[in-house]
Structures are given as C-alpha cells and as structure tokens.
Specification:
The protein has about 240 residues and is of the alpha/beta class. The protein is built from six helices and seven strands, in the order E-H-E-H-E-H-E-H-E-E-H-H-E.
Length: about 240
C-alpha cells in the first residue's frame, strides 16, 4: 500500500504565467490525477515578458492570460485566479499580502506551493523572490490569525491553517516527488505558452525539462522527479 502524500486541496501561487508549470507542473498533474483540487493564483499579468519590439503590454497581457487558461484547462486546475499586478512591480504590501491571505482562506489548502525566495546560488527574478516571501507570510501567520485581515469575515472567510509549504526551485530541496508518469504532461502543458517558447525552442525546453527531472530523481532512484523544500507548519 502506497504511503505517498496526496493532499485533498492545494494552492499554487505563481509570480507569472507558466512559472507554476515549470516549477511544479508534474507534481500538480500527478496530484490532480489522484483527486486533489488545485487552485492556481497568478500574481502578475506578465506584461513585460517579450523581446518582440512590436509587442505592447496590453496585448501581451491578453495573450499570456489566454495561454495560462489553456494550460490550466489542459492540466485540470479547479480554478485560476489572476491578481493582475504589473510584471516586475510586485511589492510586499498589505494589499498584495491580503490578496494571498484571501485566496488561502478561500481555497483552504492542505498544501501551498510557491517559489523558494531564499535562493543564493542562482539569479532570481524580483517577482519570484517577493512572491515567495509574501506567500509564506500569508500562510503563516496571517491566514491563521483571525485578527489579521478581519475584513475577510465580511466575505464569509474564516482563518485557515495550512499543513505544508512546498517551495520549488530551492537551493536545498529535501523532498522529491516522482513524476515519471507525468513529465510528458508537464512538457505538453508548457507548449501552451507560445509567447514565451518559440517553436524553434521547444526541443531545447524539452531537453532542459527532461535533464532537470532526471537530475532531481537521481538521489531517490526515480526516473524523473520534481524537488522541493518542504516546510511542515505547526500550530
């Protein structure tokens, strides 16, 4: 009998469209195939992520939202929430923190997944760093404490205690999730993001994803894995 952890509900908090698929697409797909309800919160609209000199931010926003919705439908997310903050302009504010606290309280996840904000060995996009830190803070202590963001009571939302945090792209992962049967699903999901992955780069992306998953799984004898730093929440 398998003792592999499968949550009932999970909340993925991603800085930009496509980041959750890159960081945890295989794990989320695996969990959803086992019945996990997954809500995705996309913090920015991705309106700066283009090298095309003819592209505009309003047009890119629409494109990237459409791409994210297509990927989410392909994977089977229960819901996608777009917060709409401008790309590159995420800040640790009461408003942004409150957005994430609200979504934690609304979806009541057993697990919140987000990017590890504490990377030291590789450059880290500012939106990733701040999103990860604010997501952790939103989970603990803010979503837990009824005196934090009391205005949420007017929305019918109650405090919520999340059991685990899964941080992707960590320098020091301690948990590997076997995605051998779901790596191809992850690859196919990322093909929906045409604005970020030109056709000529699909082979390069596939190679990178396979190599990364192979490396993540080596220590545990897995053909392919995603690696996380997991924080068990107390109280």
């Amino acid at each position: 009998m398998s003792t592999e952890f499968i949550p009932e509900r999970a909340l993925a908090i991603t800085p930009h469209p496509d980041d959750a698929e890159i960081g945890a697409g295989g794990t989320l797909s695996k969990w959803m195939s086992a019945g996990t309800e997954v809500t995705l919160v996309v913090c920015t609209n991705g309106d700066k992520g283009s090298a095309d000199p003819e592209m505009t931010s309003p047009r890119l926003t629409a494109i990237r939202e459409k791409e994210q919705r297509a990927s989410a439908a392909f994977l089977g997310f229960k819901e996608v929430v777009f917060l709409g903050h401008p790309d590159g302009e995420i800040d640790d504010t009461r408003e942004f923190r409150g957005d994430l606290v609200r979504e934690v309280r609304r979806s009541k996840p057993d697990v919140v997944l987000t990017c590890d904000p504490f990377r030291r060995t590789f450059y880290l996009h500012r939106d990733h760093r701040i999103t990860g830190q604010v997501a952790i803070d939103a989970v603990f202590p803010y979503a837990r404490d009824h005196l934090s963001y009391p205005e949420h009571k007017e929305l019918g939302l109650e405090p919520h205690k999340t059991a685990k945090l899964y941080l992707w792209a960590s320098d020091e992962p301690d948990t590997q999730v076997d995605i051998g049967d779901f790596l191809q699903v992850k690859i196919e999901a990322l093909k929906h993001f045409k604005s970020q992955i030109a056709a000529e780069r699909e082979a390069e992306l596939t190679k990178y994803l396979v190599e990364s998953a192979t490396k993540a799984g080596e220590a545990k004898g897995m053909k392919a894995a995603e690696a996380f730093r997991v924080i068990e929440m107390r109280g």
